[in-house]
């Protein structure tokens, strides 16, 4: 069983509205992201996470996002294994997101 905390899309939206210091990372493919992303999200495809993770500050709080929550959970578990302690997965992914989208 995963040790990754899950956060609801509504909680993510609230953190964004409150200007909390979180980084949302969208691990979907380019064509999926073209359909809209969480505001201020950083797009790093799942396949690129192993290379890009070295560029990310470990002390930052991250919320991982994909379409349904499965790929982002894999990314979150990978990051946790690399020493990132503040990584959460957005429950249900973009399928459950009903907030604002950016293109």
UniProtKB/TrEMBL annotation:
Domain of life the protein comes from: Bacteria
Xref: PROSITE patterns: RHODANESE_3
Which InterPro entries does UniProt cross-reference here?
GlpE_sulfurtransferase, Rhodanese-like_dom, Rhodanese-like_dom_sf
Kindly list the GO molecular function terms attached to this UniProt entry: transferase activity
Task: Report the SMART domains cross-referenced here.
Answer: RHOD
List each copy of the Rhodanese domain by range.
18-103
Per UniProt, the keywords (alphabetical) are:
Transferase
Q: Which PANTHER family match?
A: FAD-DEPENDENT OXIDOREDUCTASE, SULFURTRANSFERASE YTWF-RELATED
Q: What is this protein called?
A: Rhodanese-related sulfurtransferase
User: What is the organism field in this record?
Assistant: Halobacillus dabanensis
For this protein's source organism, the top of the classification is: Bacteria, Bacillati, Bacillota, Bacilli, Bacillales
């Amino acid at each position: 069983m995963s040790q990754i905390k899950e956060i609801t899309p509504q909680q993510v939206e609230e953190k964004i509205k409150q200007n909390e210091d979180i980084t949302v990372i969208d691990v979907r493919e380019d064509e999926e992201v073209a359909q809209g992303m969480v505001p201020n999200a950083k797009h790093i495809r799942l396949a690129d996470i192993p290379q890009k993770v070295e560029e990310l500050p470990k002390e930052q709080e991250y919320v991982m996002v994909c379409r349904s929550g499965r790929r982002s959970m894999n990314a979150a578990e990978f990051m946790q294994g690399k020493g990132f302690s503040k990584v959460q997965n957005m429950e249900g992914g973009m399928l459950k997101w009903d907030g604002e989208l950016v293109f």
